[in-house]
């Protein structure tokens, strides 16, 4: 995607840094922050991997025939279960600049809760999970301008991958990525642990 003539890397980087600053501000000051009030004074911002456009990927969309007939039950951090519908499958190629890392085709499912009409929920684990990133996995939310159809393209930017609120407070219950979204590669992009 970095070789897309319409992609301006400087604008992308500035927008990404602005989103990160806004999130840090929210976590440190907002009454609904998942960081307990007594810890907000010592909070000096999240840790992130360096912005890397090679993790901004163009994907090909596949649409499952009847999502309601095959719901996905995701376990939660509190031992519960949440029902989702697998509404898209996203296939993408990741090209590595590092000669020691092979280019890889990845597949991730995107989910929606029944009766909602919003962003696609894309929880995932990768080889950084539990080491460089939160042990419960990370999330992305994707929004398409129109309804997605078979063969469409949508951009997935792993630089926007974030840690769920349950990493900061046990009062939050978060879905855990299902096994179909466990990637066998490291994605060093987005939020990371200290």
UniProtKB/TrEMBL annotation:
Residues 18-27 have a biased composition (Basic and acidic residues). Transmembrane segments: none annotated. Pfam families: DUF1684. Residues 18-48 are annotated as: Disordered. InterPro entries: DUF1684. This is DUF1684 domain-containing protein. The lineage of its organism: Archaea, Methanobacteriati, Methanobacteriota, Stenosarchaea group, Halobacteria.
């Amino acid at each position: 995607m970095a070789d897309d003539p319409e992609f301006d890397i400087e604008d992308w980087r500035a927008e990404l840094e602005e989103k990160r600053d806004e999130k840090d501000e929210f976590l440190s000051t907002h009454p609904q922050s998942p960081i307990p009030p007594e810890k907000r004074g010592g909070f000096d911002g999240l840790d992130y991997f360096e912005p890397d456009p090679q993790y901004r990927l163009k994907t090909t969309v596949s649409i499952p025939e009847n999502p309601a007939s095959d719901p996905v039950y995701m376990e939660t951090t509190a031992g519960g279960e949440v029902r989702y519908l697998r509404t898209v499958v996203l296939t993408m190629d990741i090209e590595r600049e590092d000669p020691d890392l092979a280019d890889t085709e990845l597949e991730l499912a995107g989910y929606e809760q029944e009766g909602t009409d919003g962003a696609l929920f894309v929880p995932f684990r990768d080889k950084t999970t539990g080491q460089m990133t939160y042990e419960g996995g990370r999330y992305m939310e994707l929004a398409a301008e129109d309804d997605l159809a078979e063969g469409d393209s949508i951009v997935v930017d792993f630089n926007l991958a974030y840690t769920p609120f349950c990493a900061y407070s046990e009062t939050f219950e978060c879905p855990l990525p299902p096994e179909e979204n466990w990637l066998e590669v490291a994605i060093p992009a987005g939020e990371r642990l200290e």
